[in-house]
Design goal:
about 190 residues; mainly alpha; about 5% strand; globular
Length: about 190
């Protein structure tokens, strides 16, 4: 079973791939830094988003998860407070297309090569899109598959998505990432 951090990393790699970019050999994804994205999605102590995200941010800050260092354990804790991963066995890797991409995201190890494969697959699928709206429809569908068949749930989805605007703005990769997460939130 994949961890929440691996799933979120896989989603970021897919967003980069749909944008036509590769994942670096170190596993980093340019423009989609989870060390900045996760705390933004949880809100901040100063401005604090309302509801579940505000509560999670409060717990995260008290436990030191929002500390200045971006240790992997801190990121995993933050990811786990936003995403939970249930039974992933209903998504079949052999299905190909969006379904196969969802399976790759759910089964990824978080390694650079695993994330690179996800980005490559997303690039191939994204090339079949005939328009920006078609591409965003694909990415939203990916989120829906991750949620319905993949057992991934996204806590506080709409509030967390709005918080991403402060970090990602209108960047194309950010829009794709928000589309995937938006599909997951539905």
């Amino acid at each position: 079973m994949s961890s929440a951090l691996n799933v979120l990393s896989g989603i970021a790699a897919a967003a980069a791939g749909f944008h036509g970019e590769k994942v670096s050999s170190s596993g980093s994804i340019a423009g989609l830094d989870l060390a900045k994205i996760l705390p933004a999605m949880l809100g901040s102590k100063a401005g604090g988003a309302a509801g579940i995200i505000g509560s999670l941010a409060s717990v995260a800050s008290k436990s030191g998860l929002l500390g200045g260092d971006s240790k992997l354990g801190n990121l995993a804790g933050l990811a786990g407070s936003l995403l939970s991963v249930g039974n992933t066995s209903t998504v079949k890797e052999s299905a190909g297309g969006i379904q196969g991409l969802a399976a790759a995201i759910l089964g990824n190890s978080g390694s650079a090569s695993s994330l690179g494969s996800i980005a490559s697959l997303a690039t191939s699928i994204g090339k079949t899109a005939t328009s920006k709206n078609d591409l965003l429809g694909m990415t939203s569908q990916l989120g829906k598959i991750l949620g319905s068949s993949g057992g991934v749930s996204f806590s506080g989805g709409s509030t967390a998505l709005k918080a991403l605007d402060s970090v990602l703005g209108n960047d194309a990769k950010g829009t794709i990432l928000k589309s995937i997460l938006g599909g997951l939130a539905k």
